[in-house]
């Protein structure tokens, strides 16, 4: 069996990517495809941590902005990530892949409270670890939560599976002349204000020397291609390689 390039990764999936046709809820057929590929990664010896957003149910700033207090709206978003994590855990276990949900806030039987030692132990045991509840604090995105958990578990790479196939010089939907980058440095991302992750997440990844690969989740096999070392999408790193 071909050996993976990365031994331990943090996979971040947007909640919107799991949404059904109406743009809300969970498309379980697609979720199963994603989980099958995650299971394939584990079978190749990759340790997988997973953070999933909650935008298919609730986006704090977007859905609550101007109508409710920001911290409470963000807390609702955290709960949405728990819903998605439980759904993915169930799909993984249906496939025979052990998975554990660790929550950033105490939630009793819903999930075990997050701790770095527990996450490390489960990953070494071949379990997929789903980090739910964001950072546990309002005003921080799930991108920031993903980078934080990646730093804690000392992930080799952050895999950012999005609805776009990489990083562009401008919004390709608005600018037909937008150029896609194969690789880009964190310094350029910050200097050009490119929308890869929010500023806090980008700075945290840079500070902890964790590269990020951004690619489209439309084809879930891209996850396996990424861990096997195929350079898909865009890689964001400290210094781009010529």
TrEMBL record:
All copies of the Aspartate/glutamate/uridylate kinase domain together span 8-215
Name the reaction it catalyses: UMP + ATP = UDP + ADP
Q: What is its main location?
A: cytoplasm
This entry's Enzyme Commission designation comes to 2.7.4.22
- Activity modulation comment: Allosterically activated by GTP. Inhibited by UTP.
Q: Tell me the segments the record calls region Involved in allosteric activation by GTP.
A: 20-25
One example of the protein's molecular function in GO is: ATP binding
| Presence of the UniProt keyword Cytoplasm in the record | yes
Domain of life where this protein originates: Bacteria
Q: Which positions are annotated as binding ATP?
A: 12-15, 55, 59, 163, 168, 171
Which Pfam families does its entry note?
AA_kinase
Q: List the keywords (alphabetical).
A: Allosteric enzyme, ATP-binding, Cytoplasm, Kinase, Nucleotide-binding, Pyrimidine biosynthesis, Transferase
Q: What Gene3D superfamilies does the database record attribute to this sequence? A: Acetylglutamate kinase-like
Pathway(s) per entry? Pyrimidine metabolism; CTP biosynthesis via de novo pathway; UDP from UMP (UMPK route): step 1/1
Statement: the UniProt record of this protein carries the keyword Cytoplasm: yes
NCBIfam families linked? pyrH_bact
Q: Give the similarity note.
A: Belongs to the UMP kinase family.
What is the protein's known function?
Catalyzes the reversible phosphorylation of UMP to UDP.
| Subunit structure, interactors included | Homohexamer.
**What is the protein name given in its UniProt record?**
Uridylate kinase
């Amino acid at each position: 069996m071909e050996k993976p390039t990365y031994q331990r990764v943090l996979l971040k999936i947007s909640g919107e990517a799991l949404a059904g046709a109406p743009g809300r809820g969970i498309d379980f057929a697609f979720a199963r495809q994603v989980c099958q590929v995650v299971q394939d990664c584990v079978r190749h010896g990759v340790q997988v941590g997973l953070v999933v957003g909650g935008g298919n149910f609730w986006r704090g700033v977007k859905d609550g902005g101007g109508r409710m207090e920001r911290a409470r709206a963000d807390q609702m978003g955290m709960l949405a990530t728990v819903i998605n994590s439980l759904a993915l855990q169930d799909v993984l276990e249906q496939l025979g892949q052990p998975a554990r949900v660790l929550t950033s806030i105490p939630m009793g039987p819903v999930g075990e409270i997050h701790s770095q030692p527990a996450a490390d132990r489960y990953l070494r045991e071949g379990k997929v670890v789903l980090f739910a509840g964001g950072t546990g604090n309002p005003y921080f995105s799930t991108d920031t939560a993903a980078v934080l958990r990646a730093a804690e578990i000392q992930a080799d790479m952050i895999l950012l599976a999005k609805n776009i196939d990489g990083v562009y010089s401008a919004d390709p939907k608005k600018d037909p002349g937008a150029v896609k980058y194969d690789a880009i440095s964190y310094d350029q991302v910050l200097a050009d204000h490119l929308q890869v992750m929010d500023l806090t997440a980008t700075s945290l990844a840079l500070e902890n020397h964790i590269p990020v690969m951004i690619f489209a989740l439309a084809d879930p096999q891209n996850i396996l291609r990424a861990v096997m070392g195929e350079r898909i999408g865009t890689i964001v790193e400290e210094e781009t390689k010529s």
